[in-house]
Design a protein that fits this description.
Number of helices: 21
Number of strands: 18
CATH topology of the largest domain: Rossmann fold
Distance between the termini: 75 Å
Structural class: alpha/beta
Strand content: 5-15%
Shape: elongated
Largest sheet: 5 strands, parallel
Length: 462
């Protein structure tokens, strides 16, 4: 129920307003002077205040000067005589929501109050959503137990209160955007925009206009001005995912943003100052990209002020059980099912799987398992199709010799065999190993197998 405070020194006017608003279901308080109003504001926290500008010898404007700070500031509706409308307009400039002129019209009064109520409800909803975001992305809420991730969380906590540029490395699905959001929503910029853009998902011809915006008439089809994402993120954070895919020409303009804190829209003449924190992410080695002249060296050093290298899920298996239980709880609630956990055999299969798609793949597997599960726990039957447990179980029967094995060489051979079996169709080879296209290509590049694939496998015995 919305609480309203009426402030008027005329008792008849107060009683009329109190009766009208009470009959509409509002919780109504009244005061005859500034002192009474302040007491009620401090005790009852009204969302809406109706105040006359003239309160005997007092000025109703004083109400505005003593209200709580945003975002809990009530909506103030000023009541004024016809001859003092200029004073009401001045009150609005100082923060009043609206004004009403005497004599009051009941319908106009109720419409104005409802508009103020809608505004306050939107503010409340916005605050709740923000709180959910802060809770979702709070650093201490990120599931970590492995030594590698604990070290990363320590770095994130140190960089969060600063404005430093952050470069995040990691395979697809390792949580690069999650870390970037955690940095933003725990920083002094948390109440400002967080804008994410995937540089690989936007055509090269459009990326510059997306980032920097353009003026009307800048090119064919530019009928109106467009604000770019950098400008839209002013005072906040811009997350540039797949930064390695940014065209060289756009890289030079991004460098200017980092160096000079300014942009110019396409077709524009004015320099626009911006205050944006840049967080970039990639699954490529930017140092190698610099050597290959695909990435600007000066931009690389501007981006890597602080570097975070997220490990693949197979490198932090200590975290898997907690992640599994987190996703079980999440999707059990979402789908209205009572799934209490996962049996030992299914958990063992999950721990033995290589997770080429990392946390994103794990979440997808658990989500599907929750949907099809008809018991109180997830079993091997609920996940074996996704993990290819039945088809691949003999692979895990490898005997490791006393002298050990070179894991990277083993993985390299698997990549080669998958390529040959698929007749060098990368999408099919990726599916054979349960990887996404991007992950398979990333690992080919890691082992230097991406160039001249057919030439590389000429002497390989099938």
């Amino acid at each position: 129920m919305t609480t309203i405070l009426i402030v008027d020194d005329e008792i008849l006017q107060r009683e009329i307003l109190l009766t009208i608003l009470s009959e509409e279901g509002y919780n109504v308080h009244s005061a005859s002077c500034i002192e009474e109003a302040r007491k009620i504001i401090n005790e009852s926290f009204p969302e809406i205040i109706l105040t006359d500008l003239k309160l005997g010898s007092q000025d109703g404007m004083e109400i505005l000067n003593n209200l709580p700070d945003e975002p809990f500031r009530p909506a103030v509706i000023v009541i004024t005589a016809f001859g003092t409308i200029s004073s009401a307009v001045n009150a609005i400039k100082k923060g009043a929501f609206d004004y009403l002129t005497k004599p009051l019209d009941k319908e106009v009064l109720l419409v104005t109050v409802r508009k103020a109520e809608e505004r306050m409800n939107l503010i409340k909803e916005n605050l709740m959503l923000r709180k959910e975001l802060y809770d979702k992305f709070k650093i201490d809420g990120i599931i970590v137990k492995s030594k590698k991730m604990l070290q990363i969380i320590d770095i994130v906590k140190k960089v969060t209160p600063t404005n430093a540029t952050v470069l995040i490395y990691g395979e697809s699905g390792t949580g690069k955007e999650l870390i970037s959001r955690a940095i933003h929503y725990n920083s002094p910029r948390k109440n400002k925009p967080f804008i994410a853009i995937n540089c690989a998902a936007i055509p090269e011809t459009l990326i510059e206009s997306e980032l920097f915006g353009y003026e009307a008439g800048a090119f064919t089809g530019a009928n109106t001005r467009k604000i770019g994402l950098i400008e839209a993120a002013d005072k906040g954070t811009l997350f540039l995912d797949e930064i390695a895919e940014l065209p060289i020409t756009t890289q030079s303009k991004l460098l200017r943003v980092l160096q000079d804190k300014e942009i110019r829209r396409i077709g524009g003449k004015d320099i626009i100052k911006v205050d944006v924190r840049i967080i970039a992410a990639t699954n490529k080695n930017l140092a190698d990209e610099v050597v290959s002249n695909r990435f600007r060296e000066d931009l690389y050093y501007r981006l890597k002020v602080v570097t975070v290298e997220l490990p693949a899920l197979r490198e932090r298996k200590e975290d898997i059980p907690d992640l599994v239980h987190f996703f079980i709880e999440k999707y059990s609630k979402e789908f209205g099912k009572r799934i209490n956990g996962i049996d030992e055999k299914a958990m063992e299969a999950i721990l033995n799987y290589s997770w080429p798609g990392n946390i994103r793949e794990l979440e997808s597997v658990i989500e599907r398992a929750i949907i099809i599960c008809d018991k109180d726990k997830i079993t091997i039957d609920d996940i074996q199709d996704e993990l290819k447990v039945t088809k691949c179980k003999n692979i895990f029967d490898i005997n490791i010799p006393d002298e050990g094995i070179n894991y990277e060489e083993l993985e390299k051979e698997l990549l080669k065999k998958a390529l040959i079996k698929s007749n060098f169709v990368i999408a099919q080879a990726a599916r054979l190993l349960g990887m996404s296209y991007d992950t398979f290509w990333y690992r080919l590049k890691k082992f230097g197998l991406s160039e001249n694939i057919r030439e590389m496998t000429k002497n390989f015995v099938k």
